[in-house]
Amino acid sequence: MKTYYKIRMILLSLVLFFAACAYSKSRPDINRETVSNINLNDFMGRWYEIARFDHRFERDMSDITATYTLLGDGKIEVINRGIRNGKPVEARGKAKTTDIPGRLRVSFFWEFYSDYNILAMGPNGEWVLIGSKSPNYLWIMSRTPHLDTTTLGHVIALAQARGYDTDKLIIDND
Question: Is this structure's pTM higher than 0.90?
Answer without folding.
Answer: no
